[in-house]
Amino acid sequence: MGTGGKILLVVLGGGTLGLAIYSAITARNLTRMDYNVSGFKVVEIDNRFIHLDIRIDVINPADWDVVIKKYNLDVFLNDTWVANSQSATKKKIASNDTSRLTISISIDYKKIFGLLGSAKMLALFGAGDVDNIYLGIKGSFSGKLLGYEVISPIDEKLTLREITAAASKSTV
């Protein structure tokens, strides 16, 4: 192999290594995506369920757009599981920007007042103690970044006061 071939090989190898390192750093940034529950809307209340839409703002720190392919989220009220939401609908999250996702959930009344040690929860709701009633969202978003599969966890906990303050600023 001549000198020109060796230089070309070194340049291509270095470029490939640089792209791999940049891709790894960007993929690592995806796992650092920030989530903010920024609003909710009561869609419907029927004889068994409360149907809610929860708005989550997703902040993408990567220099590339991310496509979220699916999510699996568990919703908790004061550490008691009340609902699960899953989706396989693709959503593009713009690079270095904030995008909004709307998560639809249905909560069975029994999950709120039947399984939670009703007396304590009813007392909190009855007293309007919005600082001691909190909603938790735990799970993960799965997406693709530069062709790589990446999983980004979410673990958010907000008091009812924080949620209602966000909801009063805007609707889903």
Notes on the protein architecture:
The protein has one domain (3-169): Immunoglobulin-like. The chain is built from 4 helices and 8 strands, in the order αββββββααββα. It has helices at 3-30, 109-114, 118-127, 160-169, and strands spanning 34-45, 49-60, 66-77, 80-87, 91-93, 97-108, 134-145, 148-159. Strands 3, 4, 5, 7 and 8 form a 5-stranded antiparallel β-sheet that branches. The protein has a 3-stranded antiparallel β-sheet with strand order 1-2-6. The longest helix is centred in the N-terminal third of the chain and has 28 residues, at 3-30.
Q: Secondary-structure blueprint of this entry?
A:
Blueprint: H1 3-30, E1 34-45, E2 49-60, E3 66-77, E4 80-87, E5 91-93, E6 97-108, H2 109-114, H3 118-127, E7 134-145, E8 148-159, H4 160-169
Antiparallel strand pairs: 1-2, 2-6, 3-4, 3-5, 3-7, 7-8
